[in-house]
């Protein structure tokens, strides 16, 4: 029984690791990150927990880099699962870079893994509650985000710099696009008997996030948690509970969907005490 | 240890029963339905499977009837869970009746149970993939559906007969409203430490559904399944997998959300071979 | 994606059905029973719930009948799972028949399915809490039950009629043997990358059981439930919770084990108020 | 919603942490260990993952220390769960110390938490596959281990130094005793509507275990894994899968049981290629 399936994690962080811990027993994991140090750090923790892991450097904004990742993965066995937790946050980068990684990169990743995913395989990509706070796009705009060929995506008029207010807007539209690409890709993955979904988490505690809660914007965060129904931020293992359902046979009838897990912050943003003032 | 919690199921069918089987061990179940025969039939099956069940007649389009249900439930113990699977389908009724039951009735049900739900309790209401196929409403319309006081809901201009094309439209807007009420109620349920979510299933096999698949519209259904990514209709137990997550401690960070489980039919409707012809 | 895996259920009852409902989505099920009417009744319920089922007549006390079942199953696809819920109870039969079905038949079933089970496949056989109430056998006796070639099993001296007190004793020793065969078979199934475990349930409610609780021995049962820690009989879905873990990837490190789920009745039998009087 | 339940973890290591990550969302955790540095290290990781944790120093071989732990826990809320992963291994200590901690200490821990556990609460104690490799004790010996008052346990003749061969024997008999105490305690915990079970893991990878695999006895371990059905050691998250079932409502009918999760090593030890030579 030497052959193992291969599970690819893009984006080496606590969230991706918590998901992989639920689904990768006995298989091979490739942990890929833009920073090889991140990939190595997560790999080390997983190896010390008994997993069989290869760290790898990838730039998901480059199709060539994604194709290299896939070749490396396929050398180890059939690719049965993709967990994409890579992405830039609005405070980390520029509008252009966010669109290049979070929107274009994710689209290419879903497209290329959809061409090689094992029969019966599954994928999940981490989106964000932010996508739920953006005003509705028109049906035509949604369709453009879903179906424009990946190499033409960044030429869409709606994605040109003059139409994107700021990094938060870039991030929101990237996450909206992720959801639409997941729907469109679900059709293609389905032709291989595979499934692809997304998860939109609220704020999840990580060592980095904890630094922010205890930093200068700490009161902002504490107010947000206090005013959301859950009254607290989320835990990576709670997101992993959702991913585990989506990626196992228990979720065999779920594909092309997005799952919001945010402690009710979105509900409170629209209809509770987190509502922005309206004029 | 005589005291049991009470789990209320409204809508006595295969879907509600599959959910209740996952969450009601050792507790008291009230199975409520508009037709007492339905409530009694499901109760019989559950009793024969070892559950402790009381059948009850309810009309969820009547606040008084809902309040009676709650009084009966509370006599048995604290109400810890609500599973709402009641509702009329587009082919069963008139526009007016659908709005009265599926839109107004569900809204009142969520409101009234939200006033009595046990600390840490959970609820789930069954919506439908149909809500995903409707064109986007404006942000104002969404807000009206979410926040209009229940007794004024049916007076909304957008819900008047001249603005509702047909029973399918009535059904879709009712399901859209359900999702919005769930968000708004999540804020209120959260004040009691409770959570409320919805599930939007695609076509799920039941004895009744099977009759339809084998009936005059059988080819329509067979085509739909063949062209959806899953290639088959869903199973009530697969919906129960989602409900179990939402209603257990594993879903403690999920509230105010909707979960689409449709075998990718919605994805195919928008971006696959189930697309209606576009002009 | 036409090829389906095949899941074989031997013993068409509520318990087997509850397990199959958790694991067979989208696959082919063969429901095999000594009475074809039972197989057909359970198949009907499963078909009406959306499963793809073939009823089949099998006599698990006959190797030939088991081999025919396997041939039929393999025509449909690879056999990925075995759920064995077949067996005679002490009140239903003679000592000889119980040994032939529950001891020899189960041993042959595990042996033959172990030769064809798909790589990564899993099996579970339903044993009973009764096996836990028998005095310990010697290590040599245990080894004989575990390793004697199946065709010689019923010739073991310890299994001859003069050494078996009554049908309960036959039943207990059969269940003890099941546990030992599961351990020995786990080694062989492991060579195919497959796993096999057993579950020992306490008293589980079914329509038949309910008749007994309400019959002449009703007080006996009510006393037993009242004096066990759970204070109630079990529910088939609770046994299915255990089977689901054992048969999914979540149980990938579990093989050759037995899981007792009896509401604590065994604990109470040894150390609580269900203790028989000791002289 | 200020009141949280309290979950007590005794034994601050990877296994206990993996379990706690599955069950403690939104509650208070007390991480207690003989070495406060261990408690603090695990607490730090859990805090960085979003949990609410208090590290605490405990010596489970002292009833007084256990009672202090309980008092501290109760100040924070009701104690709803106990996860006991404390214990000495055969290579770490003397026969006497192993009996004092693993046998007497665990017995007292289960006894004292059984007096305060919340209605509906659950406990799990980590035992070991080692308990399965010991020859059967007599029914009388089992009963003595199960029911002797805790303060008299270490005076049992069978536990005197001249009757214990070595530290492995001490360890095995301690684990056997754990299983019996769990059964006897299940009766008492049941009176409070609470449940208690044990898990017997095989070899689980941790940073410490990994050092051993790569050390001078590495070949011994590699041989053991290669010859067990799973072909690999276990992962803490796989044990957590079992614990999650036992401690949630899904395991409501399970109490007084032990669950062996060892990759089939025990099966192979008795009936496969891990069998010791027999003369």
UniProtKB/TrEMBL annotation, chains A, B, C, D:
Subcellular location: Peroxisome
Catalytic activity: (2E)-hexenoyl-CoA + NADPH + H(+) = hexanoyl-CoA + NADP(+); (2E)-octenoyl-CoA + NADPH + H(+) = octanoyl-CoA + NADP(+); (2E)-tetradecenoyl-CoA + NADPH + H(+) = tetradecanoyl-CoA + NADP(+); (2E)-decenoyl-CoA + NADPH + H(+) = decanoyl-CoA + NADP(+)
Protein name in the entry: Peroxisomal trans-2-enoyl-CoA reductase
One Pfam family cited in the UniProt record for this chain: adh_short_C2
SUPFAM superfamilies: NAD(P)-binding Rossmann-fold domains (SSF51735)
Main location: other
Keywords from the named record: Fatty acid biosynthesis, Fatty acid metabolism, Lipid biosynthesis, Lipid metabolism, NADP, Oxidoreductase, Peroxisome, Phosphoprotein
Organism for this UniProt entry: Chryseobacterium ginsengisoli
Assembly mode: Interacts with PEX5, probably required to target it into peroxisomes.
Pathway: Lipid metabolism
Protein EC: 1.3.1.38
Role noted for this protein: Participates in chain elongation of fatty acids. Catalyzes the reduction of trans-2-enoyl-CoAs of varying chain lengths from 6:1 to 16:1, having maximum activity with 10:1 CoA. Has no 2,4-dienoyl-CoA reductase activity.
């Amino acid at each position: 029984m030497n052959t193992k399936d291969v599970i690819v994690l893009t984006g080496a962080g606590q969230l991706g690791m918590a998901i992989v811990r639920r689904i990768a027993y006995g298989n091979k994991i490739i942990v890929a990150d833009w920073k090889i140090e991140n990939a190595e750090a997560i790999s080390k923790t997983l190896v010390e927990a008994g997993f069989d892991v290869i760290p790898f450097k990838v730039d998901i904004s480059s199709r060539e880099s994604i194709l290299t990742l896939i070749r490396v993965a396929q050398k180890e066995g059939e690719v049965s699962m993709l967990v994409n937790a890579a992405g830039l946050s609005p405070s980390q980068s520029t509008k252009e870079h966010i669109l290049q990684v979070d929107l274009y990169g994710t689209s290419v990743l879903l497209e290329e893994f959809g061409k090689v995913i094992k029969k019966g395989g599954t994928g999940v990509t981490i989106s964000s509650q932010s996508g739920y706070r953006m005003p509705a796009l028109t049906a035509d705009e949604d369709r453009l985000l879903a179906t424009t060929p990946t190499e033409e995506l960044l030429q869409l008029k709606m994605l040109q710099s003059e139409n994107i207010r700021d990094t938060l807007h870039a991030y929101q539209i990237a996450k909206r696009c992720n959801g639409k690409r997941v729907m469109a890709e679900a059709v293609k993955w389905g032709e291989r008997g595979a499934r692809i979904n997304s998860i939109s988490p609220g704020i999840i505690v990580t060592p980095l996030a904890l630094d922010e809660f205890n930093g200068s914007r700490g009161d902002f965060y504490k107010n947000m948690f206090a005013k959301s129904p859950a009254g607290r931020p989320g835990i990576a293992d709670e997101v992993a509970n959702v991913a585990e359902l989506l990626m196992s046979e228990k979720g065999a009838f779920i594909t092309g969907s997005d799952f919001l897990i945010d402690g009710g912050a979105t509900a409170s943003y629209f209809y509770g005490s987190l509502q922005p003032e309206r004029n």
